[in-house]
Every structure is written in C-alpha cells, then in structure tokens.
From TrEMBL, chain A:
Pfam families: Biotin_lipoyl
Source organism of the structure: Devosia crocina
High-level lineage: Bacteria, Pseudomonadati, Pseudomonadota, Alphaproteobacteria, Hyphomicrobiales
InterPro entries: Biotin_lipoyl, Single_hybrid_motif
Domain Lipoyl-binding: from-to ranges: 67-123
Name of this chain's protein: Biotin-requiring enzyme
Domain of life from the UniProt record: Bacteria
Record Gene3D superfamilies: 2.40.50.100
Residue stretches spanning the membrane: none
UniProtKB/TrEMBL annotation, chain B:
Catalyzed chemical reaction(s): N(6)-biotinyl-L-lysyl-[protein] + hydrogencarbonate + ATP = N(6)-carboxybiotinyl-L-lysyl-[protein] + ADP + phosphate + H(+)
SUPFAM superfamilies: Glutathione synthetase ATP-binding domain-like (SSF56059), PreATP-grasp domain (SSF52440), Rudiment single hybrid motif (SSF51246)
A single BP term in Gene Ontology: malonyl-CoA biosynthetic process
Summary of the function given for this chain in its UniProt record: This protein is a component of the acetyl coenzyme A carboxylase complex; first, biotin carboxylase catalyzes the carboxylation of the carrier protein and then the transcarboxylase transfers the carboxyl group to form malonyl-CoA.
Keywords: ATP-binding, Biotin, Fatty acid biosynthesis, Fatty acid metabolism, Ligase, Lipid biosynthesis, Lipid metabolism, Magnesium, Nucleotide-binding
InterPro entries, per database record: Acetyl_CoA_COase_biotin_COase (IPR004549), ATP-grasp (IPR011761), ATP_grasp_subdomain_1 (IPR013815), BC-like_N (IPR005481), Biotin_carboxylase_complex (IPR050856), Biotin_carboxylation_dom (IPR011764), Biotin_COase_C (IPR005482), CPAse_ATP-bd (IPR005479)
Name listed for the protein in its UniProt record: Biotin carboxylase
Single Gene Ontology MF annotation: metal ion binding
Domain Biotin carboxylation intervals: 1-445
Domain ATP-grasp: residue ranges: 120-317
EC number: 6.3.4.14
Length: 127, 450
C-alpha cells in the first residue's frame, strides 16, 4: 500500500537527486512519477487503459518462436503494437494495444483460455 | 459419444439444455455475449466463455467463434437450442467439418426443410397432407401463373421458397391482382432470403395452427409424440400453446402423426423436429418443418412424460431409444403461456432490472425461466423471460391451474404480459377451445375499440 506520505517522500527524493521519472512496484500496484523540469510544474496526468481481447483463444504473451515476452511492465508501447496473441490451433490472433503508453500490469496468465473482451494488461497513457 | 456439450444459446433454453445434460452426466460449456455476462445460468454451467459483443450477429450468430469455443474447451458436441443458428445448414456443416457433433439433423435435412418447395415435395412423397398447389416453384410466365391460380381457386397465397416465420408472403384474392403480387413477392423473396423463387398455394381463411412433435434416433426409430395447438398468435408469434389440440379426432391425429414419422424415416431425419400444419374443416395441411427443439416442447413433455431435450442428446450420442411408439401415450392436458417482458396490450418491450420474482408453485405447475431478482434483461434479444406450463387431468383442469398460477406469478421491476395471459384464460373463445390463428388479433382489436 502506497500512502500520501510515501508520495511526498518519493517526490522530495526525486527533487533532491534531480530525477525526472521514478517507478515503484509494490505487489500489483505500480507507482510511476514524472517531474517535468521545474519544481512547480504539475505532474503529467495519466490514465489507465485496459487492453482486451477481440476474439477467443489461449493467451500467448511470448511469440512461440521467441524466448522473451512481447512486453513487460514498464515497457513503452506504441498504439497498434502487438502485446500478445490468442492461439487457436495454428492461428495466432494478435492482441493489440489500443493506445500508446507504458505497460502497467499483466492481468491474464500465459496459456489461459480467454473469451471475447477479456482483460489482458493495462497501459498507462499520458493524457 | 461426447461427454462435454457446448450450449450455443441463451436464456431459458440454455438453462433447460444444461439440466438435460447434467441428467446424463454430460458436462456443459455455456457461451455468452458481453450483454449476457451477468446471466444467472452461467453460474451453473461447468465452463463459460464469452464469444462476442451483445449484437447477436457478432456472438450467437457467429458460427466460427462458437466452433472455436467448442474446440478450445474440448466440447464434443454443440446444442443450438432454438432460434439463432439452430436451423442454419452451414452451421451444421462447420461443426461436422471440425469433427464435432451437431445436436440435430444432418445439414442436408436442414437444407431440404429450409427450402419450402423442396420440403413440400418431400412431404408429398411421404404422404403427408399438404396445402393444394404445385410442388414446384412458379414459372416466369404470368399467363401460366394465372392458369395455375385459376386451377387452385382464389384466394391463393404466394410464398418465398426460402422464407418462413411469416415473411415473404402475399394473399391474392382475384385474378386481376396476380401479376403485380407475383412481381412484389419475387422482389421481397430476393431481398429477404436471397432466393427469388416463389410458390403458390390455396389460401386458407380461418385455419388453426396444429403441429406434430417428432423425435428420431440414428437407428431408424422415428417417433411422433402427439400434437400441439398453437393458434393463439400475434403477428405470427405464438403466445399460448397447448397439448393435445382440443376437439380434433384422435384417429386423424394418429394418422397424420404416423405419416410424419414415416417422412422422417424416408429423409433419414435424426433429432427433434416439428411438422407444422394448418387445420381447417377437419383437414390437415402441411406448412413447414422446424428442424430443432421448439419453445413449446414442454407441453408435449408434460402430457407424454418424455424428456425431449434428453432424447435429443441421446440421439446425438448415437444411442437407440428404448421407448417405442406403442409406449407413447398422452395423459391429461397441458398449457404453456409465454411470459414476455413487454406491455400486455401495446406490446412495447420493457427491458430493465427485475426486483422480485414470486414463482407460482403447486401440483402440475412447471416454470422454465432464467430470471431472478437483480437480473437485468438485455435489450438486444427476444423479450421472452419465462414459460409457465401447467398440466391438468383435462383441459378444464389445466385452465383452472393456469388461472391460479398466473395470479400467483409476480415479476417486479419490469412490465410483463402476465395480465394479458390472465385475461386470455377467461376469454370465452379460448376457454371453449379450437380458436383460429386470427382470434387473438381480432380480440385485441375489439378490446382496444371498447
């Protein structure tokens, strides 16, 4: 659980050390802070978008011919980027990020059978 | 032989199929649309999977998604219920191509019965009585058509060969209107059913709608399970159904029933089916065959004691029926009222959230429904929310039970047609029995005028 006091402390640390961005992961929560130059500038607001399936199949977060996952939390993704696949026999249906941003939380597990509209992961989107 | 069944439908019939499957030890996979994500019957399925958004064409009518769901969940068979893809030959083909079992007849049987001209030809060949008129599509030449109409005698009705459910039909009362009517009906047939073929039949003025239930296994056992009267209709939609049809000679029903079973043997039919007839002046006239389970199957189940959905699954599993025609008996009388979420007299739909359900209960009362308090009825689909069915020692007893059951039945939060059904149970024509298919519309018009 991240408290307001933690936020205050994180912000002073960032200002003290001249950091522009800071990401802290605690369990399923991801805190991402960005300072834009001046000390008084407001933090860029972010919204969270959920990437959902547009079909059904077994979820692959790693392409069968590669060893690394397509994306991991904290990765920047472009709108239209493939973040996973739905496997149906030999057919792979791409799961596509609707918006550009930073990958937040992975919500479904590798190999899970997902129906239409199932949440796969979240993307933190710059407003 | 399958031990896991995918149910490609929604609402009360999805629940009804689940129950039958469970009785046979078959596991169930319920597919659903996003609009049905909160449906109560999903909780009792062994597995569920969302196949698409609310619009039926992207979910319950998406054959490929349904077959993928079956393959991914390891279901060996698909039950289509009624409506949606239940009479779609291509769906049956896609299922067979995927190595799965379609709970129903072969795609060829569906195709034959879907083409009304071909169906009529098959029925004439099997000795099933049909409406007077040729068993072929009409020629192009208007003079030739007029000669055919003269021979049948006016009034006649023009129908689309690919049609059904009351669409693509036109009544012609005299020779001077035949040419124009043919042109219009052809154009509609092309537009609605993508098949410009039309055919002509004698138009019956005041018929009743009487149908014969059949069920067949894959070992040549074709049984007819009695008759139903579904004459209480509005805009070709059935409102009340009963079994048996009141006031019709049982020997005549048995003769027609035997011919229907014989037609099934001739075309190699497997599964449940219904032969729909018009009945006028003591004569049966075949109109169409429905190659699926009907909404009104429970009235037949109550009077015969047979479980039609279970028998569908047994037939699909390749099992032979143990019951034979001689064992099929009709006991007492059953009536079904369709309960719809709609205004009882304007018929405008009333979707919304149900706040309370008080179900009628007692001897001889059956309620097939998927609703409960807190359930929100999606606006995308059919407005039927329940089927109230009663069984009595005779018709008067059944009527009395239905009156009591309707007065006990309460659904809060939405408007339903329960008040209409309650009035109809006391309507003199229906109480007497033997009304024709126009009765309800006439009664509604008179009621509105007074």
């Amino acid at each position: 659980m991240i408290t307001i006091a933690d936020l205050d402390r994180a912000l002073s640390l960032m200002q003290e050390h001249g950091l522009e961005t800071l990401r802290v992961r605690e369990g399923e929560a991801l805190l991402s802070l960005t300072l834009s130059g001046s000390e008084t500038a407001p933090l860029a607001p972010r919204s969270e978008a959920t990437v959902t399936t547009k079909g059904l199949g077994r979820l692959l977060l790693t392409h069968p011919q590669h060893s690394d996952p397509l994306v991991q939390p904290g990765d920047a993704v472009a709108a239209g980027a493939t973040v996973g696949f739905l496997e149906n026999g030999s057919v792979l249906l791409p799961v596509v990020a609707g918006k550009a941003g930073t990958v937040g939380t992975i919500l479904a597990s590798e190999g899970a059978l997902l129906g239409y509209g199932a949440p796969v992961l979240t993307i933190l989107v710059e407003a | 032989m399958f031990d896991k069944l995918l149910i490609a439908n929604r609402g009360e019939i999805a629940l009804r199929i689940q129950k039958a499957a469970r009785g046979l030890g078959i596991k169930t996979v319920c597919v659903y649309s996003q609009a049905d994500a909160e449906a109560p019957y999903l909780e009792t399925a062994d597995e569920t999977i969302c196949i698409g958004p609310g619009a039926a064409r992207n979910s319950y009518l998406n054959a490929d998604a349904i077959v993928l769901a079956a393959l991914q969940t390891g279901a060996g068979a698909i039950h289509p219920g009624y409506g949606f893809l239940s009479e779609n030959a291509r769906f049956a083909d896609v299922i067979a191509d995927a190595g799965l079992v379609f709970v129903g007849p072969s795609a060829d049987c569906i195709r034959t019965m879907g083409d009304k001209v071909e169906a009529k030809r098959a029925m004439i060949a099997a000795g099933v009585p049909c409406v007077p008129g040729p068993d072929s599509a009409l020629p192009q030449d208007v003079t030739a058509i007029a000669a055919i109409a003269d021979e049948i005698g006016y009034p006649v009705i023009l129908k689309a060969a690919g049609g059904g459910g009351g669409r693509g039909m036109r009544v012609v009362r005299s020779r001077e209107h035949i040419a124009e009517a043919v042109a219009l009906t052809r154009e509609e047939a092309q537009r609605f059913f993508n098949n410009p073929e039309i055919y002509i039949e004698k138009f019956l003025e005041n018929p009743r709608h009487v149908e014969i239930q059949v069920i067949c296994d894959s070992h040549g056992n074709a049984l007819w399970l009695g008759d139903r009267d579904c004459s209480m209709q509005r805009r070709h939609q059935k409102v009340i159904e009963e079994a048996p049809a009141p006031g019709i000679d049982r020997a005549l029903i048995a003769e027609v029933g035997e011919r229907c079973a014989n037609a099934c043997r001739q075309i190699g039919y497997v599964g449940a089916g219904t032969f729909e007839f018009l009945f006028e002046d003591g004569q049966f006239y075949f109109i169409e065959m429905n190659t699926r389970v009907q909404v009104e199957h429970p009235v037949t189940e109550l009077v015969t004691g047979l479980d039609i959905v279970t028998m569908q699954l047994q037939a699909a599993r390749g099992e032979a029926f143990t019951v034979q025609q001689g064992d099929v008996e009709t006991r007492g009388h059953a009536i079904e009222c369709r309960i719809n979420a709609e205004d009882p007299f304007t018929f405008s739909p009333s979707p919304g959230t149900i706040t309370e359900v008080v179900a009628p209960n007692g001897e001889g009362i059956r309620l097939d429904t998927h609703i409960r308090a807190g359930y929100t009825i999606p606006s995308q689909y059919d407005s039927m929310v329940a089927k109230l069915i009663v069984h009595g020692a005779d018709r008067a007893d059944a009527l009395q039970r239905m009156r009591k059951a309707l007065s006990d039945f309460r659904i809060g939060g939405i408007t339903t047609n329960i008040p209409l059904q309650a009035e109809l149970m006391n309507e003199p024509g229906f109480a007497k029995g033997g009304i024709n298919i126009h009765h309800l519309e006439h009664w509604l018009a008179e009621r509105a005028a007074s």
